[in-house]
Write a structure and sequence with these properties.
The chain is mainly alpha-helical and about 80 residues long. The chain has three helices and no strands. The longest helix is centred in the C-terminal third of the chain and has 32 residues.
Length: about 80
């Protein structure tokens, strides 16, 4: 079932998706950071959100690459 997709290297797909996943994490972090003052924390600046998004974007990239690979495998099975 996943023979064709399993032979494709996941890292190539992850390299393609990494900027998009990391920026999505950065946007979400920034928006969450705007709610920080309501609980007594300082606001998260856009630069801080980008810096935190680099390490936090790695798991998001891996998850999105696996998801896209499963979509490709499902399309090839049809």
């Amino acid at each position: 079932m996943m023979q064709g997709a399993a032979r494709r290297p996941l890292w190539k797909l992850a390299l393609l998706l990494a900027p998009f996943a990391t920026l999505a994490v950065a946007i979400n972090l920034f928006l969450v950071g705007l709610m920080f003052p309501h609980v007594g924390l300082p606001v998260l600046s856009p630069l801080q959100a980008l810096l935190w998004a680099v390490p936090l974007g790695l798991p998001a990239t891996y998850a999105s690459a696996r998801w896209v690979r499963s979509l490709i495998a499902g399309a090839e099975d049809d």
